[in-house]
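Page 37, continued from 36.
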């Protein structure tokens, strides 16, 4: 601190541009949205700040409240799936030989090099009614049908007359698959970092004392990497909660999340005050989640200390 005080001009030279950028492109737009959330439309293009709470009270209406709960449920379920899939992947990377680790990490990061829109359209090609998944299942159905006919069984009675494709688009399942696909790297990397810092002598001691691999995983590995799991859950859940493109394309207007409705308020309905209120409410929910995590982390450190 003394060095900063003795070289205050140098400090300001580096600090001022960053601070100005933050104020201009983050704080100022947030303040504008905050003022809009307490405003009313007075014309087609003008919003007057009247300090009304009506926009926030509309969030409690059944339709909007249901939408928020749906967004929380979809994000929560997708986060759980990411943790279940991501932990074994991170464990494989952490225990891989040194030469393989950079390549495995590259495979996890590689999707970020492709535009999200392109990746989502690729999912449309895979999950569509005539997509790759259903085409593969139809091929298996035809082979099974032919095999039953060949051995003299009534294939129609067993399998039905026509192949029924699995419908993903416009369903919760399709949106969850899309959210997991997009956000899985956010889950894997923090867990991998926690596993890399782990003292593996504890695992060896557990196995030497007679614990099974499952017991060691459940009672030693999971508790010792819990901080990484919590971090992974939070940085996966929060972006999911504000997802727009994935539910817009894979939900087909039938499985909307809150970001889709916010977008329509600004572009279609021209109700900027209500859209601003929903945006800030989403921000408040995010702050609450982060605050809970921070207090829990402080309590853990206090208990350990």
């Amino acid at each position: 601190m003394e060095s900063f005080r003795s070289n205050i001009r140098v400090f300001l030279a580096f600090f001022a541009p960053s601070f100005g950028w933050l104020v201009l492109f983050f704080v100022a737009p947030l303040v504008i949205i905050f003022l809009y959330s307490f405003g009313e439309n007075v014309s087609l293009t003008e919003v007057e700040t009247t300090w009304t709470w009506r926009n926030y009270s509309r969030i409690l209406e059944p339709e909007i409240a249901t939408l928020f709960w749906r967004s929380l449920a979809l994000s929560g379920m997708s986060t759980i799936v990411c943790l279940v899939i991501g932990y074994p992947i991170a464990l494989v990377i952490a225990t891989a030989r040194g030469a393989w680790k950079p390549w495995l990490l590259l495979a996890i990061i590689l999707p970020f090099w492709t535009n999200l829109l392109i990746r989502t359209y690729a999912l449309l090609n895979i999950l569509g009614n005539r997509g790759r998944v259903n085409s593969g299942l139809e091929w298996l159905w035809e082979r099974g049908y032919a095999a039953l006919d060949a051995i003299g069984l009534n294939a129609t009675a067993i399998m039905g007359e026509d192949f029924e494709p699995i419908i993903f688009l416009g369903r919760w399942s399709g949106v969850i698959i899309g959210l997991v696909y997009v956000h899985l790297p956010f889950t894997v990397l923090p867990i991998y970092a926690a596993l890399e810092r782990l003292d593996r002598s504890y695992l060896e001691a557990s196995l030497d004392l007679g614990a099974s691999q499952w017991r060691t995983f459940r009672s030693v590995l999971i508790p010792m990497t819990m901080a990484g799991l919590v971090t992974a859950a939070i940085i996966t859940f929060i972006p999911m909660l504000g997802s727009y493109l994935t539910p817009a394309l894979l939900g087909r207007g039938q499985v909307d999340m809150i970001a889709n409705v916010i977008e329509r308020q600004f572009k279609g309905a021209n109700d900027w005050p209500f859209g601003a209120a929903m945006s800030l409410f989403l921000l408040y929910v995010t702050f609450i989640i982060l605050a809970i995590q921070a207090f829990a982390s402080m309590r853990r450190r206090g208990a350990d200390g």
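The longest strand covers residues 39-41. Flag for discussion at group meeting. Strands lie at 39-41, 47-49.
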